[in-house]
Design brief:
Strand content: under 5%
Shape: rod-shaped
Mean pLDDT: 75
Number of helices: 4
Helix content: 55-70%
Distance between the termini: 107 Å
Low-confidence stretches: 67-83
Number of strands: 2
C-alpha cells in the first residue's frame, strides 16, 4: 500500500511539473528549452519535477515570472501600470468593486458636496424671495 501511494505521489508530482513547464515563460525556464525540461521530468520523474519546482520558485523570487501590476500613475490617473518583472501573485489591475476605488469615492464625495451646496443655495434663494416679497407688500 505504501509503495502504491509513493508511486502515485511521484506520478502526480511529475504530471504537475509537466503541466507547469508547458505553461511557463522562457524566463522562468532559466535558459533551458521546454523540450529539455519535459525530457528531464519524464526520464527522472522525482528529480526532474523537484528540480523544475525549485527553478520555478527561484525564477519567481528573482522577478522573472508572470507580470503583476506595480505601483505608479498611468497617464495622470491613479491606476497602476503593469510591471513586466514583478514577483508575486497576479492581482487585478483595477479595484474589484467601486467602493474599493479611491477615485470613485472622491468623485462621489464631490457630487454630494455639490448637491448640498445647491440645496443650501435654493433654500437661501427661497428665504430671500420670501423676505423680498414681504418687503414689497409693506
Amino acid at each position: 500500500m505504501r509503495n502504491i501511494l509513493l508511486i502515485l505521489v511521484v506520478v502526480g508530482l511529475a504530471a504537475y511539473a509537466l503541466a507547469d513547464v508547458w505553461g511557463s515563460d522562457e524566463d522562468e525556464r532559466r535558459g533551458l528549452p521546454r523540450w529539455l525540461w519535459v525530457l528531464l521530468i519524464v526520464l527522472l520523474p522525482l528529480l526532474g519535477a523537484i528540480s523544475w519546482i525549485v527553478v520555478r520558485v527561484a525564477a519567481r523570487r528573482s522577478g522573472a515570472g508572470p507580470s503583476a501590476p506595480g505601483g505608479g500613475p498611468n497617464g495622470g490617473g491613479s491606476r497602476p501600470t503593469p510591471s513586466p518583472r514583478a514577483p508575486g501573485p497576479r492581482r487585478p489591475a483595477a479595484p474589484v468593486a467601486p467602493d474599493d476605488d479611491p477615485e470613485f469615492l472622491w468623485r462621489l464625495e464631490q457630487e454630494k458636496r455639490k448637491r448640498e451646496r445647491e440645496a443650501r443655495g435654493t433654500r437661501d434663494a427661497k428665504g430671500d424671495d420670501a423676505e423680498n416679497g414681504s418687503a414689497h407688500t409693506d
